[in-house]
Amino acid sequence: MLNRILIVDDEESIVTLLKYNVEQAGYETEVAFDGEEALSIAEQQSFDLIILDLMLPKLDGMEVCKKLRQQKNSTPILMLTAKDDEFDKILGLELGADDYLTKPFSPREVVARIKAILRRSQTKMASNEESEELKRIGHLTIYPEKYEAYYEDELLEFTPKEFELLLYLARHKGKVLSRDQLLSAVWNYDFVGDTRIVDVHVSHLREKIEPNTKKPVYIKTIRGLGYKMEDPKE
């Protein structure tokens, strides 16, 4: 069965170019030309990946991404933008996009990114199907196969990347992990040494699991090295 990809861009020439090259690479496609249409299609149909332009009429790409993640839709998102702006890059990934590509781009690069994202997604699904045991750390309980985590008995709300970061830290409890390690493991993308996205996500995790964010007991900062997950009960 072919992978299905939703292409969202308000420029017909871009959509035509992407549709042709993506289908030539062996994928099925569906298209949308504005954010509201994209959200409606994504809610009604199942896709393996969404190519999502940032600047869209009716509802921009950031809002589409945010709403999909709020609906627990974890379909991988490759975000496109004409802006080479670091803030947009960080914000897009913070909202749950899986990768980021700046216009102009080559069709070959888009196809390469699609293959890489799908490969990571399929690897993640395969590992989840191994019914990995739940993780208990202090009052925190993580269910990897369900993509759920509870603090005491309360279900916590995470973006996909926040959950993946939490799970990676939990799997390596007691080990110091550098920001570059976390960036590579969770985002699998080269930000040319810019690890601010890691710090942003750690800050968000602390807001959700730490009794006191100013004195964290779960995710410790190891000055000059990185972060370490600890069990406050041990």
Name its key features.
234 residues, alpha/beta, Rossmann fold, Arc Repressor Mutant, subunit A, 2 domains, 4-stranded antiparallel β-sheet, 19% strand
State the gist of this model:
The chain has helices spanning 12-24, 35-44, 61-70, 86-94, 107-128, 160-171, 179-187, 196-209; strands at residues 4-8, 28-32, 49-53, 77-81, 99-102, 135-137, 140-143, 148-151, 154-155, 219-222, 226-229. The chain has 234 residues and is an alpha/beta fold.
Give an overview in words.
With 234 residues, the protein is α/β, with parallel strands linked by helices. The chain has 2 domains: 4-128, 3-Layer(aba) Sandwich (Rossmann fold), CATH 3.40.50.2300; 135-229, Arc Repressor Mutant, subunit A, CATH 1.10.10. 42% of the residues lie in helices and 19% in strands. The chain is built from 8 helices and 11 strands. The protein has helices spanning 12-24, 35-44, 61-70, 86-94, 107-128, 160-171, 179-187, 196-209, and strands spanning 4-8, 28-32, 49-53, 77-81, 99-102, 135-137, 140-143, 148-151, 154-155, 219-222, 226-229. The strands form 3 sheets. The chain has a 5-stranded parallel sheet, with helices on both faces. A 4-stranded antiparallel sheet has the order 6-7-8-9, covered by helices on one side. Helix 3 links the parallel strand 3 and strand 4 (77-81). Helix 6 (160-171) packs across helix 7 and helix 6 (160-171) crosses helix 8. The longest helix is centred in the middle third of the chain and has 22 residues, at 107-128. The protein is elongated. It starts with a strand and ends in a 5-residue tail after the last strand.
